[in-house]
Specification:
CATH superfamily of the largest domain: ANL, N-terminal domain
Radius of gyration: 25 Å
Structural class: alpha/beta
CATH class of the largest domain: Alpha Beta
Mean pLDDT: 94
Helix content: 25-40%
Number of helices: 21
Number of domains: 3
Number of strands: 26
Length: about 600
Amino acid sequence: MTLISMFEEAIQHYGDKPALAHKPKGDTYQDISYTELGASVDAFSRGLHALGVEKDDRVALLSENRPEWAITDFGSLKVGGVTVPMFSTLTAAQVSYILKDSGSKVICVSTESQLKKVLSIRDDVPSLEHIIVFDPIEGEIPEGVTEFEAICKSTGETPDNTTSEDDIATIIYTSGTTGNPKGVMLTHANFIFNLQACKSLIEVRETDVLLSFLPLSHVFERLGGHYVPLFSGSKIAYAESTFTVARNMQEVSPTVMLSVPRLYETMHDRVLSAVQAGSPLKQKIFHWGVSVGSAVSASIQQGKNPSPLLKLKQGIADKLVFAKLKAATGGRLRFFVSGGAALPQAIAEFFHAAGILILEGYGLTETSPVISLNHPAKWRFGTVGEPVPGIEVWIAEDGEILTRGPHVMKGYFNNAAETSEVIDADGWFYTGDIGIIDADGFVKITDRKKNIIVLSNGKNVAPQPIESELVQSPFISQILLIGNERKNLAALIVPNFDALKVWAAENDVETTELSEMLQARQVQQLIQREIRSRLTDFADFEQVRRFVLLEKEFSQDADEMTPTLKLKRNVIIEKYADVIEGMYPEDALNN
C-alpha cells in the first residue's frame, strides 16, 4: 500500500463527489470532483514523465494552498518521484539552499512572483532542469520554464509505478530558527501508518468539509488537511489567504478545521474586546453565559450529563452569548484540531464553554507527524492526548520525550550525523520536548528543551507555561520571556492594541498616540497588575519582574515568526538586544 494506491482507490470509490473547492477568480467557490482530480493527476504525471522525471527524482513545490498543489503532490508520487514542499514565504536564498541540498530536478511554482525567486537563483542549482509555473505567464515565457497547463497536455504514457511503502514519499525541510534546515525523509509507510492511527481515533466523514489555510508544506496540514480528508471522501476548500480565513469560514461552513493556536487566540481576543466595548449589561450577560458554559463543560469532562436546569440555562446562553461565535465559524463545525504549538488551556476551556471542542495533538515533522492526540471520545484540556495506537512514548530521566514506532522518519537527507544524534541504536527518537505522562496516560508538554531559561542563580524556567498564562490577559496579545543567565525574568510584550485603547479612553489616559500611551503610568501599572494577578501560582523565581511594551506585533514579514506562527526566539532576542539590555541596567553597570 502506498499513498498513490490509496489515492487511486479514493478516486474510484468517491467518483463525482467534490474533492476540492477553490476560488479561481476570487468570486465564488468552485468544486473539483474526485474523478476530475484523478484525471488532472494522470495528466500531470504523464507530463512529468515526458520531462524525464523518474523514480526517486525530487520534485520541489513552492506554492500557496491551491488545487495544483494537490495535483503536483500526487502526480509526482505517481511517477515514483519525491516531493520537496517549501513554504511560499521563503526567500530566494532559502529556496536555493533547499533545491541544492535536495538535488531537485524540477520545481513547480504558483505565481510569477514565486517564479522570479527561482529564476534569480537557478544558475546556482546545477540539478534543476525544469521550472513549471501554475499561473499563465503574461508575455514571453523564459527559457526552461513551462506552464502547468502545457505540462498537463502531454500525450505520453506514465510508466508502471514500482514504488513500495518503504520508499521516500517526501523530503520536508524543517523551518528551524537557527542554522540550515534539515531535510526530513518520510516514507509512504510513515504517512499511511499515521493517517490510519489518527482515523482510528477521529472519525472523518464523507460529508465533512475542511477549510485548508495552514501551509500544505507543513506536515500537520499535509497529513490532517490533505491525505486524511481525501482518503475519507471529504471535501477540502482552500482559503484564499491567511487574511481571508474569517470570511472563507462563513462561505464554506467547514465541519472540521485544523489550525495553530494563534487563530484561536485571535478569535478569543476579538470576543473579549467586543465584550469590553459593550455596555455593563452586555458584559454581565456575557460573563453569566461563560459561567453556564463552563459548568456544562465541567459536567461533560466528568462524564456526567448536565442537569435539566443547566441544560435550560445553556440554551439561553447559546442564544444570547455564543450564537455569534458559532456563526463566525460557519455554523456547522464539529470540532477544531490544534497543533504546531502549545494551546493555552484557558483558550480550550473557553471554546468548550461556548460549545466548540478543540482537540489538541502533538508531533513533529520527524514523526510524520502525530505522536499523541486528544479525540472526541477521550480528551483532556491542558494535555496533547494519549499516544496514538501502535507507537511507544517514554520520558527520559531529564524529562525529554522519546518515541519509537512506524511513525519515525527514515532520517535526515544526506545527513547521517544529524540523524544519529536524534535516533539512537534502539530506534528511539529524541523529540527535544520536555514533558510528562500523567497517571491516566495523557501527555503534557512543558516546553522545548532548548527554550529552557537558566537564570544566573541556576534555576531552570520553562517559559511556555508562563507565556501561555499571560496571553490570557485581554490586554496582552504576544509575549516572549527573557532571562537566560540573568538574575530574574523579563518580557517583551505586544499589547492587545484595540483592548488597550478602549481601556485608556475609559481611564483618563490623556494621549491617543500609541508610543506615548504605552509609556503612560496608568498603562504600565495595568500590565503590571495583569502580570502579578496571573502568576500567583508560579514560584518566586518564575515571576516576571520587568517588561517592555512593543508598538508592533511579531510577524512573519519581519522574520520574527515561523510559517506556523511560532515565535523565533533567537531572532527576536537579537533584534531587540538594546531594548533587553535596557531592562537590565545593573548588568551593564557590572560589565
